[in-house]
Specification:
The complex is a heterodimer of chains A (157) and B (562). Chain A is mainly β and 157 residues long. Chain A contains two helices and twelve strands. In chain A, strands 2, 3, 4, 7, 9 and 12 form a six-stranded mixed β-sheet that branches. A three-stranded antiparallel β-sheet of chain A has the order 1-5-8. In chain A, strand 10 (140-142) and strand 11 (147-149) form a beta hairpin. Helices cover 11% and strands 28% of the residues of chain B. Classes of the chains: A mainly beta (157), B mainly beta (562). Chains A and B meet through strand 3, strand 4, strand 7, helix 2 and strand 9 of A and helix 1 and helix 9 of B.
């Protein structure tokens, strides 16, 4: 499997019922508007980007796992960080050492660890990443079957 | 602009309909006013003792003293050596008197803890969501370790599988444990009094085996009075009261439990009094999903005190000394608590209450009154890389008792953290030497607790009042600054700050620099995006997979403010 194919394994494209006779369009995300970028004063090389994404496809439903969303530099190298489809702080239901092997889907959805997006629907997305020497700009979000651009400047708190 | 962006994000929140909770589904019992059980010095009794009780009495009480004579006389009546045996033999209204000693409950320890589909009551589990769906993946479960909790029927039929000591008050089978229909009613073991007869709480120790979830569980038994003993080393809670109407927990030490020292859940009409709680991996004390103190249909769907106002407190905590835990106090949906004349210190965070988790009855959190407490020096960083590595390598059953491992993330160096709460009052407290923030108030949109209805998204954090607190100064007058006295994400309608004195120094009173007073309280239904954004990465904390989330500074203790 190609690298892109392997990454895309985390993205499930579900063709809507009734569309069997037509080919599925590419499931893809787009920023609804320019996302905002911030940097904590205490962690000057860290960035947080918060925005709203939209399923820009006409027919394809997106099922995405946050663990498949990464920030990469222009050379395609992953940066340390995380992503979640969530717009404010939350914590999970289970204590750190008491999580079931398979967390229930509603909990995954609630915490934005997973998302199901119908065409045209939106969801919050945050990504965090750490700048490191030698990275090639610009950086962007890679979610397996596509990419999203990231702002080049961040506001410090 | 920032607020517009925040509003946009709010409106775009994804539906996440979850009713999940790691506790089993519960119902509030029927309440009848605020009545604590009263302490009884007489009445039917059962005496329990250990081999060391006689020696203990002689060591703890002076020769010739009335107390010693009394206890030695009682010791002559001792026929039982395990507390569970006494409970099994007891009737409602009995007093169970515990002579000095360490109670390990050998018989109970011999009952396997079991698990779903294995061990005692293998089918009496209920999942938070999706249980019973045995279809193969991707529709059904993918794991043999589903997210299940013991249900009501397990507590009735196999009380000592999960609990070292169990008091089960309602023995009626629950036909639909996933959505309980039987409103709790105490049918047996009501109004029990379980009391240690040592000189101090540490003279009678109820010691968990680090495998059983609870050391002492009281389940739907109303009017319980627990006094003068120590609970330790539970794999979840030292004392756990679930669906209990009326309780007192007094003169108790709760220490070295995996998660909670004393926890009450869907309970009320309760009193926590003179409790020392330390060494717990979540909170020292936890009055969560607490009865709402206003006239509403408490088991109805979404209910708040917005229309009635906060009418009365339903659980009182006084003379608490909670220290060296991850959280001194916490309470998801910790409604209508009255916490006063207590100390919360040397935790990672002193007190926290929130509306984060889904499935907790009584959401969203509201109506606490916290007054005349000392909340200080909550700078205990239990999230160091070294600690987290250690905790990952040593599971609770084989970990030394005194090592605390965090179960939930929190902002180290914080006195009070209100994560989604309304109509709460913080008044006349001394709050000092918390190096990050004295008090932190943030919004939690309803979607975070799994409620995606648009009209509810801003139902926290509104109408909170911070009044007449002394910030950054010890009671003896010595300045001892907080990082910021107050930190607020600037969301909420009706929040106000008034009469607070600060000795924390220039620029340390608040962020934002100016806070609304009670004549002109706050008006914004959404937060400042930059403030909210920098909290979000902390969501991803996981001691094994992500112990130091990028862009989250909660786990670095800030420098001491001077």
């Amino acid at each position: 499997m190609s690298r892109r194919g392997a990454a895309a394994a985390g993205v499930v494209v579900v063709v809507l019922a009734g569309c069997g006779s037509k080919p599925a369009d590419e499931a893809r995300l787009a920023w609804k508007s320019t996302p905002a970028a911030f940097s904590p004063k205490a962690l000057p090389t860290d960035r947080v980007v918060l925005g709203t994404v939209r399923n820009a496809s006409k027919q394809a439903r997106l099922v995405l796992s946050a663990s498949e969303v990464h920030v990469v530099d222009a050379a395609g190298r992953r940066l340390k960080g995380s992503a979640q489809f969530i717009a404010s702080y939350a914590h999970g239901l289970y204590g750190a050492y008491q999580k079931p092997v398979d967390v229930e889907e509603p909990e995954l959805l609630r915490l934005g660890l997973k998302i199901k997006l119908a065409p045209g629907r939106t969801a919050p997305l945050y990504v965090s990443y750490r700048l490191r020497p030698g990275l090639k700009l610009p950086v962007h979000v890679d979610y397996g079957s596509g990419t999203l651009p990231l702002p080049s400047r961040a506001k410090t708190d | 602009m920032k607020r517009a962006l925040a509003l946009c994000l709010l409106l775009c929140l994804v539906p996440g309909v979850a009713e999940a909770h790691p506790e089993r589904p519960t119902l509030f019992p029927a309440w009848a006013g605020l009545k604590y059980p009263t302490y009884r010095r007489s009445g039917p009794k059962i005496v329990v003792c250990t081999k060391g009780s006689r020696k203990g009495i002689k060591r703890q009480f002076k020769a010739g003293s009335k107390e010693r004579r009394q206890r030695l006389r009682l010791l002559e009546h001792c026929r039982l050596h395990e507390i569970q045996q006494a409970i099994d033999a007891a009737h409602s209204g009995d007093r169970i008197l515990l002579m000095p000693g360490v109670y390990k409950e050998v018989t109970s320890r011999g009952v396997p803890v079991g698990d779903y589909h294995s061990g005692p009551c293998p089918n009496d589990y209920v999942a938070t969501e999706g249980f019973g769906n045995d279809a193969p993946p991707p529709v059904g479960r993918r794991s043999n370790d589903p997210a299940v909790r013991p249900d009501r029927n397990l507590q009735i039929d196999c009380p000592n599988a999960k609990n070292l000591i169990a008091v089960i008050g309602d023995t009626r089978p629950e036909p639909t444990p996933a959505a309980p229909s039987v409103v709790p009613r105490c049918l047996q073991l009501c109004n029990l009094q379980i009391e240690g007869l040592g000189r101090k709480p540490t003279d009678v120790v109820l010691r968990g085996d680090r495998l059983k979830l609870d050391v002492l569980r009281v389940d739907r038994a109303q009017g319980v009075y627990l006094r003068n003993f120590t609970v330790e080393q539970a794999a979840f809670n030292g004392i756990d009261l679930v669906e209990v109407n009326g309780f007192v927990v007094k003169d108790v030490v709760a220490r070295d439990n995996s998660d909670y020292g004393v926890l009450t859940f869907t309970s009320g009409n309760g009193l926590y009094d003179r409790i020392e709680a330390y060494g717990n991996g979540d909170s020292g004390v936890y009055p969560g999903s607490n009865q709402k103190g206003c006239d509403i249909d408490y088991n109805g769907a979404y209910q708040t005190c917005a229309m009635t106002g906060c009418q009365y407190s339903t659980t009182e905590l006084r003379h608490i000394d909670s220290h060296d835990n991850v959280l001194g106090y916490s309470g998801t949906a910790g409604n209508s608590t009255y916490v006063h004349d207590s100390r919360f210190h040397d935790n990672a965070t002193g007190l926290s209450t929130d509306s984060f988790a889904s499935g907790h009855p009584g959401m969203p959190q509201e109506c606490f009154r916290w007054e005349n407490n000392r909340i200080y020096s909550n700078n205990n960083n239990l999230f160091t890389a070294q600690r987290q590595r250690y905790c990952n390598a040593k599971p609770f059953p084989i970990r030394p008792a005194r090592i605390v491992c965090p179960h939930f993330q929190t902002a180290v160096g914080t006195g009070i953290l209100i994560g989604g709460g309304s109509r709460d009052t913080v008044k006349r407290n001394y709050i000092y030497d918390n190096w990050r923030h004295g008090v932190m108030l943030i919004w939690v949109p309803a979607a975070i607790r799994g409620d995606d209805r648009l009209e509810r998204q801003a139902d926290t954090s509104n109408g909170n009042r911070f009044l007449d607190n002394v910030m950054g100064r010890r009671p003896d007058g010595t300045p001892d600054p907080n990082g910021h006295d107050f930190w607020w994400d600037e969301q909420g309608v009706g929040n106000c700050w008034q009469g607070n004195e600060s000795s924390s120094g220039k620029g340390r009173f608040s962020d934002p620099a100016s806070l609304p007073n009670c004549a002109h309280p706050s008006t914004s239904p959404v937060s400042r995006l930059d403030k909210t954004a920098l909290l979000v990465p902390c969501t991803t904390w996981d001691p094994e997979k992500n112990p130091r989330p990028v862009a989250c500074d909660w786990f670095d203790l800030p420098a001491e403010p001077r």
